[in-house]
Amino acid sequence: MENKQKKLFTLVFVFDDDKQRLLLGLKKRGFGLGKYNGFGGKVEANESIVDAAARELNEECGLSVRDSNALTFAGINYFDFIGHPVVFEVHVFKIRFSDVNGTVTESNEMRPQWYRYDEIPFDQMWPDDRYWFPSLFKTDVKFTGRYLFESIESDVLVEENLVEERNDTTVLKRKNTNVECISVKYNN
């Protein structure tokens, strides 16, 4: 990953805690076609990461962020693809449904759908989601994930590495290289 160019992306997940549900979008075109994900995309030139997250949320599902401070930074995922010169650096945010305006609307890129927290459609999502999604539901944890895929055309995950931090203290480290190899480290 060190010698590769990085491309900045955002990803936003809308939580409706009152109804215990999460808004996901089914990708209708382009990269990730046919998979459920949060709402996001490329950070444009001269645009902040937070502004890009709010813009993409609005473009892809019709919701507007009332106050950019309501977008809570959850973590960063790095997606690397064997044989591809660019690493995707994805800044992940979450926001409460009560902190957005508008009506959930299908766009030409995404078909939004609510899912109960216990019914997330992992079989229709990227394989890395199973590793870092639990971190997304924790209120006091930030995460950094690194995922290596077989190629840019493949959703075969070759390696995953996740670190969770709470107040600058590592609370979980996990690495999996297609072998069930999990280690947990607690720092006090």
What is the strand and helix layout of this fold?
Elements: E1 5-16, E2 21-27, E3 36-37, H1 49-61, E4 64-65, E5 72-81, E6 86-96, E7 100-101, E8 110-116, H2 129-136, E9 142-149, E10 157-166, E11 169-176
Parallel strand pairs: 1-6, 5-9
Antiparallel strand pairs: 1-2, 2-3, 2-8, 4-7, 5-6, 9-10, 10-11
Distinctive features:
mainly beta; globular; 188 residues
In words, what does this structure look like?
The chain has 188 residues and is mainly β. It has helices at residues 49-61, 129-136; strands spanning 5-16, 21-27, 36-37, 64-65, 72-81, 86-96, 100-101, 110-116, 142-149, 157-166, 169-176. Residues 179-188 have low confidence and may be disordered. The two termini are 31 Å apart. The strands form 2 sheets. Strands 1, 2, 3, 5, 6, 8, 9, 10 and 11 form a 9-stranded mixed beta sheet that branches. Strands 4-7 form a two-stranded antiparallel ribbon. It is built from 2 helices and 11 strands, in the order E-E-E-H-E-E-E-E-E-H-E-E-E.
Mean pLDDT over all positions: 90
Shape type: globular
Helix percentage range: 10-25%
Low-confidence stretches are 179-188
**Mind describing the biggest β-sheet?**
9 strands, mixed
Structural class: mainly beta
| Total beta strand runs | 11
Series of secondary-structure elements, N-terminal to C-terminal: EEEHEEEEEHEEE
Number of helices: 2
Distance between the termini: 31 Å
Radius of gyration: 16 Å
Strand fraction equals 35-45%
Question: Could you write a compact summary of the structure shown?
Answer:
With 188 residues, the chain is mostly beta strands. 11% of the residues lie in helices and 42% in strands.
